Amino acid sequence: LFAAVEMAPRDPILGLNEQFNADPNPAKVNLGVGVYFDDAGKLPVLRCVAEAEKQLLESPKAKGYLPIDGIAAYDKAVQGLVFGAESEAVTSGRVATVQALGGTGGLKVGADFLQRLRPAATVLISDPSWENHRALFTNAGFPVDTYPYYDAAARGIRFDALIAKLQAAAAGTVVVLHACCHNPTGCDLSPAQWQQIAATCAERGLVPFLDMAYQGFGKGIAEDGAAVQCFLATGQQFFVSTSFSKSFSLYGERVGALSVVCASKEECARVLSQLKIVIRTNYSNPPTFGAQVVATVLTTPALRAMWEKELAGMRERIKAMRSALVQQLQAAGVQGDLSYITTQMGMFSYSGLGKEQMQRLRSEFGVYGVDSGRICVAALNSRNIGPVAAALAKVMAG
Ligand code: PLP
Ligand code: TYF
């Protein structure tokens, strides 16, 4: 049965972790995977999460099956966060939200639903994108193509080419967009550019699918959700996947969601019924604990305030590390404009270094980034930033 099974390639990012763990270099630094670490280099346990967990454990509940679409209070809290509790789409009941296994699970439930609806559609992802976008939509049965995004020479966005690609796309084409904190480039669209993309999608009958994995890591919770408001304003139907892995530091609990904005409440009921079939035939219903924690935090005013503060703390610490990195690179003699490091948004910096330079960083200095040149600035701290800047400066100098 398995004699002809081929060895699958490792995930280019998660595979790096294995290589990092096997490296005996005591000075090694892992800037590969997109995970936020605190200044002590530890994966944080947010205080709001610890508090919510304590409350939940103080009054243990029986562990029955959840509804197929998850905890109702959780789904409602997600809608409030993503669309605004008072937004017309939410109050008129035309948003279907289901709890999902992380942001990846939200993408997958949406992809499987779309595959039933539009089996021949093309899915467009950004060039470059999170590699799992291609793999996930390909595995769901879609041909995957890219739209122009990153302009390496200008360290900006090829916006005209992006719009031209969308204008040339067939109606029904699915367009996967990073709602904020673009992975891997850190280059985000401006509000005016978002408006133009939303208008183009509406005019051309494209199917926008926003991936929101870093809400709160760019400018703020509301600011990072501005793209969603652009799409709401056009009145079109669209998808949003949500991840709380990073914003609650709950990676392993697998807490996320999928929201589908429909034309009416009646349409929404039909869409929700189909999303439930996708879920039921994959894993039946979602797990309880992580979503209970997030729902408790989001719906308890004191915990919600604590979360917003802690999230702002993570965001600010990343920004401080970006500034410190620029200073230290300059101090180490790196010439040229380094402002891209501080203007990029979210957890990543796209360094512009090539594959060979990234390999040299690893073998000579024990600094692990992705071959694409992406480094996770959210893993820098006051101890490792000096050695990292020194290593980068040497590799940048050639
Ligand atoms: N989408 C993007 C762009 C990501 O970077 C990530 C990161 O993990 C995800 C989705 C998946 O999130 P999760 O870990 O919640 O599945
Ligand atoms: O891009 C990253 O590093 C994160 C984590 O298959 C991740 O999004 C990476 C690869 C993957 C799943 C999560």
TrEMBL record:
Residues forming the Aminotransferase class I/classII large domain are 28-392
Q: Which cofactor does it need?
A: pyridoxal 5'-phosphate
Q: What is its EC number?
A: 2.6.1.-
Gene3D superfamilies per record: Aspartate Aminotransferase, domain 1, Type I PLP-dependent aspartate aminotransferase-like (Major domain)
Any one of the GO BP annotations: L-phenylalanine biosynthetic process from chorismate via phenylpyruvate
Q: Listed GO cellular component terms? A: cytosol
User: Could you tell me which NCBIfam families the record lists for this protein?
Assistant: PRK09257.1
Protein family (similarity comment): Belongs to the class-I pyridoxal-phosphate-dependent aminotransferase family.
Q: What EC class does the entry list?
A: transferase
Which lineage ranks, top first, belong to the organism behind this chain? Bacteria, Pseudomonadati, Pseudomonadota, Betaproteobacteria, Burkholderiales
SUPFAM superfamilies noted in UniProt = PLP-dependent transferases
Record flagged with keyword Transferase: yes
Recorded protein name is Aminotransferase
Subunit field text: Homodimer.
Which PROSITE patterns would you find in this protein's record?
Answer: AA_TRANSFER_CLASS_1
In its UniProt record, a GO molecular function of this protein is: identical protein binding
Quote the Pfam families the UniProt record gives: Aminotran_1_2
CDD domains assigned: AAT_like (cd00609)
Keywords from the named record: Aminotransferase, Pyridoxal phosphate, Transferase
Which InterPro entries does the protein's record reference? Aminotransferase_I/II_large, Asp_trans, NHTrfase_class1_PyrdxlP-BS, PyrdxlP-dep_Trfase, PyrdxlP-dep_Trfase_major, PyrdxlP-dep_Trfase_small
Signal peptide span? none
Q: Which organism is it from?
A: Rubrivivax rivuli
